[in-house]
Design goal:
55% helix; binds thymidine-5'-diphosphate; 13% strand; globular; five-stranded parallel sheet; alpha/beta
């Protein structure tokens, strides 16, 4: 069992995860933790190379199973090289997306099945499941329109609105399946309110790691 604390931030594209991760990092550092932020897919040389393949919009014909296995491969490398060692030495890891992204995007939105995708990922992540996962919940239309304003869309973001609706709803279904681990936060609230809610829950977890 890893000694550190592992928190993951999930949500549809454009839900504001990055901002909240930075705020939580600063807060945990104030509590004396050494904090590492990782992003998925990516976070090390090999996983970044896999990311280039997965998100490349020239590969629109990619099969759902290929996509699922590539995300799991990128995750296996990240756990092996970065997340596992940090947790083993008692540090804090905050990951921008983790296994729940695969359960929702590939398991629900692509239709591969949550349990099937979890099986594949169990092999990739071994015992390193998050202590807590924050779901920044947002209607699909809002998330994608925020993204469009920021940058050119990648292969996943170019998917239909219907796909992104399945993602947004799929996350809520997943939160019902894992109510102790996944905490739902309404991401339409302002940045300070969201960050206050996250901080409070993280402190509850740190106070004994009992409520998870
Ligand atoms: P990224 O640019 O990191 O998106 P975001 O800023 O929204 O996190 O791209 C990651 C994309 O990959 C995003 O559309 C979600 C998708 N994804 C999956 O489909 N499955 C996964 O397991 C992961 C980690 C991400």
């Amino acid at each position: 069992m890893a000694k550190g604390i592992f928190i993951t931030m999930e949500g549809p594209d454009g839900s504001g995860k990055t901002t909240q991760i930075e705020l939580l990092k600063a807060e945990l550092e104030k509590s004396g933790y050494s904090v590492l932020i990782t992003r998925e897919p990516g976070g090390n040389r090999i996983s970044e190379a896999i990311r280039e393949i997965i998100l490349n919009k020239d590969y629109m014909e990619m099969a759902p199973a290929t996509e699922c296995l590539l995300y799991a491969s990128a995750r296996a490398q990240l756990v092996n090289e970065v997340i596992g060692p940090m947790l083993d030495k008692g540090g804090a890891v905050i990951s921008d997306r983790f296994v729940d992204s695969s359960l929702v995007y590939q398991g629900i939105a692509r239709g591969l099945g949550v349990d099937e995708v979890f099986e594949i990922n169990r092999f990739a992540i071994r015992e390193y499941m998050p202590d807590a996962t924050f779901l920044l919940s947002l209607p699909a239309e809002v998330g994608i329109s925020r993204k469009k304003d920021q940058k050119e869309l990648d292969r996943m973001e170019k998917e239909s609105l219907e796909f992104h609706k399945k993602v947004a709803e799929g996350y809520l279904k997943l939160a019902e399946k894992y109510p102790e681990r996944i905490r739902v936060i309404d991401a339409t609230q302002d940045v300070e309110t969201i960050s206050g809610l996250i901080k409070k829950q993280v402190y509850d977890i740190l106070k004994g790691k009992v409520s998870i």
